[in-house]
Amino acid sequence: MQNSLWCLASVSVLTLFLMVWWNKALGGSTEGWFQHYADLVWQGRVPYLDFYLFTPPGHLLETLALSKFFGLDYMVFRWFGLIQRLLMCVILFVWLVRYFHPFFSFLGATLCMLAYSCDGPDVLFYVNHSTALWSLLACWMASHLDTRSKAWFAWVIAAGFFAGINCLVKQTTGLGISMLIPVAWLIMGWRSPWQARLKLALPCYGLAWGIPILGALLWMNSQGAWHAFIEQVFVRGTSSKGPLVDTLFRPFSPFPTAVLYGVLVYLFWRLSGFYLKKYKKWEVTPTQSLSPRFQLVGGVVSGGMSFGGVLVGLASP
Fold this sequence. Notes:
Structural class: mainly alpha
Largest sheet: none
Number of helices: 14
Distance between the termini: 40 Å
Strand content: under 5%
Order of helices and strands: HHHHHHHHHHHHHH
């Protein structure tokens, strides 16, 4: 009951924030791009052949599914985008509350989603938000590998399937998350009680990942759009992000910001050493007991970025 109330509180805060904040999307933005692409498909055009599309077909298929039942009215997609954000907030809270007190889970989920929604030209329905939802779903399901329940195998299959869908929504984020999950399993499973599960989990994850990918590839091949897809999505599409180094380190720029994060990480690294010496008994799951220091450092960096993003967003005109 307590968990449900804190989860409801987090969703309520985010809803109030978004009902005011979405007016910032008015003006120059990317809103309406995929609605236009969907309209072209309904006219009989083929993506990649008859018009340029810089992403895999996943988000376009989502747009087509919505427009099939509700039309292409902008408000329909804004309401759907709002539902996506609230669902992300719920998943975050449910994930966090497995390990932390409900109040701190409320703070984490709420601040994260507020920071996520603080982009100046924020659009409620867009490919970036869709890939964020699929990424969160895949990672949350993958985190159940260490569960004591026999259902861990079903969670692994679901994680692979949703990671595959994520690749069809946005190639950069999708591939990154798809590789991150097995790497995280290998690191966290090292010398853990559930290390033996990896022998079955990794190949099953890969097979489940390939199901949506294979379906999309077969469809594009039947349309004769295979070569155009590769050129537009993996050659021209990714080059628009700029150099790889700039893309990877953009969240930590400009230079003073990077120095500040470095100092914070070092201080909390030292602080965590003192903390671990003082409290040697940890009542946690095998995943948590791997390295509390890494968790503290990750929490500092993500928390600092979230708090800074909220402040910058609130201060924007």
